[in-house]
Design goal:
Helix content is 57%, strand content 0%. By secondary structure, the chain is mainly alpha-helical. The longest helix has 21 residues, at 2-22. The radius of gyration is 27 Å and the shape is elongated.
């Protein structure tokens, strides 16, 4: 009975070590993508958005706009 327990512990330990060492793949470098988007970046680097609320889903005329403002401002 003790032998089975030891075997199971060894198997679990070796699986854990394999999982931990297997996850050490080389991370993708985001700078490798720059050549792919270089033309797009150069065309759009100086553009200014016409809409000041471009990053928001809410606009001043929406019902939830004031509620969200109050929540953000405490």
């Amino acid at each position: 009975m003790m032998r089975h327990k030891t075997i199971i512990q060894v198997i679990l330990l070796s699986l854990s070590i394999n999982v931990l060492t297997g996850c050490k793949e080389k991370a993708i470098n985001p700078e490798d993508d720059i050549p792919l988007f270089k033309d797009f970046i150069e065309e759009n680097i100086d553009k200014v958005a016409d809409d000041p609320y471009i990053s928001s889903t809410l606009r001043p005329d929406d019902e939830m706009y004031e509620v969200m403002l109050k929540l953000q401002r405490g």
